[in-house]
Design brief:
Layout lengths: L11 E5 L4 H13 L7 H14 L3 E3 L2 E2 L2 E4 L6 E11 L9 E10 L3 H15 L2 H9 L3 H11 L2
Parallel strand pairs: 1-5, 3-6, 4-6
Antiparallel strand pairs: 2-3, 5-6
Helix pairs in contact: 1-2
């Protein structure tokens, strides 16, 4: 599964200041849907919040993969943010989260959704990959690291 096909440099943000899970999800939505006028930010945020109510999308290691299916999109939308300070995300290892890779998937793409999440979980389980992302200074650095590894 090559996830680079739906990643663009404008969907990455380093050094984001968030104080809560909701503000982090708002930032993910803003980045993932920017430039797509057919998507209402409120709808994307509500989809992510509803998914979080089913259980935290934190996977451990300071990483969360917030994701949801969303009506009105025809391709996956994604965003990666690195927080300046980790936040509580109800992680299974009780570690606060500072890396969030958000994913919005068309409602009908169930198989693709699962494949993408599997690939992301695999990538973010690699300690050196997480460290590279955490050491990134710019949005472009995050993009280059992600697209260099996410093939």
């Amino acid at each position: 599964m090559n996830i680079t096909k739906f990643l663009t440099a404008s969907n990455f943000a380093a050094n984001v200041n968030c104080v809560s899970k909701k503000s982090a999800l708002e930032n993910v939505c803003l980045l993932a849907t920017q430039g797509i006028s057919s998507i209402k930010q409120k709808d994307a945020l509500n989809a992510l919040i509803e998914r979080e109510k089913l259980g935290s999308t934190a996977i451990g290691y300071g990483v969360a993969l917030p994701h949801a299916r969303l009506d009105g999109i025809d391709r996956p939308l994604a965003a990666l943010i690195h927080l300046t300070s980790p936040i509580n995300f109800d992680s299974p290892d009780d570690e606060p989260v500072d890396l969030l890779f958000g994913l919005l998937i068309p409602v009908e793409n169930t198989d693709e959704h699962l494949k993408i999440l599997s690939k992301l979980a695999e990538l973010f389980s690699i300690k050196s990959f997480r460290e590279q992302l955490r050491n990134a200074k710019t949005n472009e650095d995050l993009f280059q690291i992600m697209t260099g590894k996410a093939v």
